[in-house]
Amino acid sequence: MTDATSSIMTHPTAAELLEAVMEWLAESQPTRQGRDAYLALVARNALATVLRELQQGPAMVSGSANRLSDLLNMQAEPAELRDMLIEQIRTGKIAANNPALLVHLAAETKARLAIDQPKYKPAP
Q1: Please, which residues have CB within 8 angstroms of residue 77's CB and are 6 or more apart in sequence?
Q2: What secondary structure, in 3-state letters, does 12-66 show?
Q3: What is the secondary structure of 73-118 as a DSSP string?
Q4: Distance CA 19, CA 110 (A)
Q5: Per-residue confidence band for 3, with pLDDT thresholds at 50, 70 and 90
């Protein structure tokens, strides 16, 4: 166990459990064939996405909430801020070409891609 909380825990963390299952799937992959091999690979990729979500998700949500608080000039829960942004764009209170909005959307896209598709490299 490597993270700070695991030193006081008596059982594996969620991340450690995911890593163990991913490792087992990788090690057992050569014995699989056809559809089973494909499904094991899909499962391993899904678990890797869940692991990245656990590791990077809180920082993504926090960064998003901070940017939205600044953009909307208000404090609220992240989901409320997102809904308010949608409403303000819909009603024209925030223009689609607002520089702060564009910065926020680019940061959101980059953070989401880091979790969902970490190998993705945008075209220059």
Answers
A1: 65
A2: CCHHHHHHHHHHHHHHHHHHCCHHHHHHHHHHHHHHHHHHHHHHHHHHHHHHHHH
A3: T----HHHHHHHHHHHHHTTSS-TT-HHHHHHHHHHHHHHHHHH-T
A4: 24
A5: low
Query: Cα dihedral angle (37, 39, 41, 45), rounded to 10 degrees?
Result: 180
Q: What is the pLDDT of residue 1?
A: 47
| 22 vs 49: CA distance, rounded Å | 11
Q: In terms of residues, how long is the chain? A: 124
Q: Is 10 helix (H, G, I), strand (E, B) or coil?
A: coil
Tokens coding 93: 């209170």
| Whether 68 contacts 81, CB under 8 Å | yes
Q: 34-72 vs 99-116: helix axis angle to the nearest 10?
A: 160
Between these two residues, 7 and 49, which has the higher pLDDT value?
49
Residue type, 114: A
Q: What is the pTM assigned to this prediction? A: 0.78
